[in-house]
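A.,

Following up on our hallway conversation. Structure tokens first:
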């Protein structure tokens, strides 16, 4: 039986290099660097369980502020909801269309049922990404965005 494309853990339909950001300054830094390098898209990934710690409204406001600040790469985003289906549903109600929800979340099917008609993407696991919260990650940002990811495991999550 084929799995629904929106439920697949892969990020093939979400283009661009992935960067974990912990706030507006880091997201703007990543967007600026991506623009300088000519990247057409950037995937901003929240910190682990950010929906539970900061809330979906905070994440969506951060993404909207950064995207509106300057023209540049198309910004895609993923909000990590951990196993909190309620936070995932809240994000969907607020307009979120990129979520990470644990594969073993008991209410995952209910979230997918609501997400799919909206065109939202619900991943089972976090994509490989450069975490700008880690020491030295900002120095590696341009190489990461330019595709110099081979062998660079420090500062990434997967």
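Then the amino acids I'd put at each of the 158 positions:
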């Amino acid at each position: 039986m084929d799995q629904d494309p929106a439920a697949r853990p892969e990020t093939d339909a979400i283009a661009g290099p992935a960067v974990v950001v912990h706030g507006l300054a880091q997201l703007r830094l990543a967007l600026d660097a991506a623009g300088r390098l000519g990247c057409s898209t950037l995937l901003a990934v929240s910190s682990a369980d950010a929906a539970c710690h900061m809330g979906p409204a905070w994440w969506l406001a951060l993404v909207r502020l950064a995207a509106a600040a300057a023209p540049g790469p198309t910004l895609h985003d993923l909000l990590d909801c951990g196993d909190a289906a309620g936070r995932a549903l809240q994000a969907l109600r607020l307009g979120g269309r990129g979520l990470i929800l644990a594969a073993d979340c008991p209410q995952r099917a209910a979230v997918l049922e609501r997400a799919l008609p909206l065109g939202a993407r619900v991943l089972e696991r976090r994509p490989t990404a450069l975490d700008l919260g880690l020491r030295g990650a900002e120095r590696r940002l341009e190489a990461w965005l330019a595709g110099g990811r081979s062998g660079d495991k420090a500062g990434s999550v997967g």
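The first strand starts at residue 18 and ends at 20. Curious whether your intuition agrees with the design.

B.
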